[in-house]
Amino acid sequence: MANHSDHSHGHDEAHAHGSLKSYIVGFILSIVLTIIPLVVVLNHMLSQLPTVLIIMVTAVLQFVVQLFFFMHVRERQGNQPRWNVMALIFGLAIVLVVVSGSVWIMTYNGVGY
Predict the structure, then answer these.
(1) What distance in Å separates the CA atoms of residue 21 and residue 25, rounded to the nearest whole number?
(2) C-alpha closest to that of 16 among 77, 68, 71, 66
(3) What is the DSSP letter of 44?
(4) Do 102 and 89 belong together in one domain?
(5) 86 lies in which domain range?
(6) Counted domains in the chain
(7) Each residue of 27-58: pLDDT tens digit?
């Protein structure tokens, strides 16, 4: 009986990883999201602000592709809650607070002196 439960546990672990198709799709999306800002910057296609916006948007999309296609954030194992998603959201909230606080301090550091 222990063999059956070990076998089913191993079967669940096999499904916890992505398929070859999902890895190929993620790889192609990563390549495209890398080439887009590279072409825009190297060919001076846009002015500074739109170029920076293109870089930022493709960077965020690249982050999402990496999370979902390679790090399997959306997958859950068994009946466990999605702790990795909650930890990611908490980490992003901390990063947002630190970065926005740093920008605030750098922006208003010399005001009033």
Answers:
(1) 6
(2) 77
(3) T
(4) yes
(5) 81-113
(6) 2
(7) 999 999 999 999 999 999 999 999 999 999 99
User: CB burial class (10 A; 0-12, 13-18, 19+) of residue 29?
Assistant: middle
Cβ neighbours of residue 82 closer than 8 Å, sequence gap 6 or more: 74, 76
Query: Of how many residues is the chain composed?
Result: 113
Give the number of other Cβ atoms within 10 Å of residue 67's Cβ: 16
Reduced 3-state DSSP string for 47-89: CHHHHHHHHHHHHHHHHHHHHHHHCCCCCCCCCCCCHHHHHHH
d(CA 70, CA 82): 16
Integer CA distances (angstroms), 63 to 37, 76, 102, in order? 14, 20, 22
The identity of residue 65, as a single letter, is V
- Rounded to two decimals, the pTM is 0.63
73 token code pair: 């954030």
Q: How confident is the model over 64-83, as pLDDT tens digits? A: 898 888 887 776 666 666 77
